[in-house]
Amino acid sequence: MSPKIRARVGNRGISSVFTAVIMALTIAAVIAAIAVSWPMMKSNFDKSSWSGSMGLYKVGFTYTKSGAYAYTQNGVSAPLNGTPGFVGYCIAYQYNATTAIYSCPSNQPSYQR
Amino acid sequence: MTEPIGLVIAMIILTTAIGIGLYGYWTYANHVTLQNYLWPIAEVVPLKNGTYYLAIVNTGYEPFIVKQIYLSNGSTISVNTKPLTHNQWFTENLTSLPVAVRVCSAVDPGICIVVPVHGWAMAEVGVPPDAILVVVETTIEPVVIINGPPTPIGNPIGNPIRGHGGGPIRNPIGNPIGLSINATVLHEPSNCHWSLTWYGWAGNSISGTGNLTFLIQPVYGDVHFIPTNLLGPIEATPGSAVIFKVVCIWQSAP
Description:
Strand content of chain B: 35-45%
Shape of chain A: rod-shaped
Structural class of chain A: alpha+beta
Structural class of chain B: mainly beta
Oligomer: heterodimer
Order of helices and strands of chain A: HEEEEEE
Radius of gyration of chain A: 32 Å
């Protein structure tokens, strides 16, 4: 085998090793990127879901034998008092004879008032 | 010989670059993930004294610290609370309207978000359906006269209802009280001292001489008694009998 042919065969071997290593590194990098990205993608999904649920979070008012109550759609209720109280993720209080003032996650931002 | 060495060096450089890149991406992803799980809700309602009641709750499971409150007048209040865990609230009374709050993760205080403060709305609550007032006059007729305008929903009581010594007078009889009743208790004769007692969620009694005017107002499931020139209001639970008991005590001649 001539030295030229021997060199050509050697280069081809090195090139194959290089390609294999590049492919291995690429696959490892992609797997690592997916593994790293997964919690972030899940958190994005969870955040969107949470924002959607908070955008619909409201409070209602009703009467019982023991007085006026404020309630939310997830079953949380609390008596309505003259000072602000927590009703689920809302706050509410009795403002005057027939009016309650409340703030909920579905309300507009305060700076838009 | 030089080619394998070059290959090894290239591999090391490449691996290092990928490693650094992945580490940077992991740091970024971790930052975004922690930021995405900061779930604060901030709300504000105005109070009757002109101040604002700010409440912040952690609706998520990643604890956070409330760092700053931004006000509508452009100023900022630093608060730096203890870490709020799931469903824990932080409240503050403020003289200016809060518009946003800045919260930072308790896991990594360098990760912060600014969220708007939700404003308030008003809701009509109405009147309770079963607030009933029962007036009892135990002295000799005609010591007490109750009169007032017709109730909006029930039995008209425009005509004076005279107290009877025998038993209770429902006002209106057996029907719920409407929005409000202005009633006057007249005493005959005028030199009769009287005391007024009522029972219910917050029973009490008052006493005096002469005419008495009071307002009966069912509010939010309670009956609020707001006597003119008297201490009040007093509340009574709907459904329970609210009894006014007038006792006429004759003064002995000096």
